[in-house]
């Protein structure tokens, strides 16, 4: 996920990551079974996220249909979650202003659960964790987990309130 305030560099949108229209963005990603091979994928995801100044990135965005997401939390910590599952969510829905590396030059208001409870393998900690996230962190997690299910943020836009980035 990207944010307007962070801006986005003017680079060719057709190199990396994959762009809307690519069928790989619409696949249901596979659960990771073998954690031993994660290192290389994680390094590649980190490199792309940094290059494009992304708050979050999902493995299918770099053509790898496995359930791995990266995000930078509001506290500045970078997290890699493997096989993330939302096991609880607030009933309160709030608007989240989002952009996406795979949907260039568009920003829109997306309805998201204000908070979620996540269960995932935390790559940095090397163990399974259950954690609660709210607001920006929660929105970013919902956005990235959507990617694992072939959903793009535009699919959830109710008001056609597109803002040019
Ligand atoms: Zn995205």
Secondary structure layout plus pairing:
Elements: H1 38-51, E1 56-58, E2 68-72, E3 78-89, E4 93-100, E5 103-113, E6 115-122, E7 127-134, H2 135-148, E8 163-164
Antiparallel strand pairs: 1-2, 2-3, 3-6, 4-5, 5-8, 6-7
The structure holds zinc ion.
Family: Belongs to the polypeptide deformylase family.
Enzyme class: hydrolase
Pfam family, one: Pep_deformylase
Keywords:
single chain, 165 residues, alpha+beta, Peptide Deformylase, five-stranded antiparallel β-sheet, three-stranded antiparallel β-sheet, 2 helices, 8 strands, 17% helix, globular, binds zinc ion, peptide deformylase activity
The total tally of domains equals 1
Radius of gyration, rounded?
A: 15 Å
Question: Structural class, from secondary structure content?
Answer: alpha+beta
CATH superfamily label:
Peptide deformylase
CATH fold descriptor: Peptide Deformylase
Average predicted confidence as pLDDT: 89
Distance between the termini: 13 Å
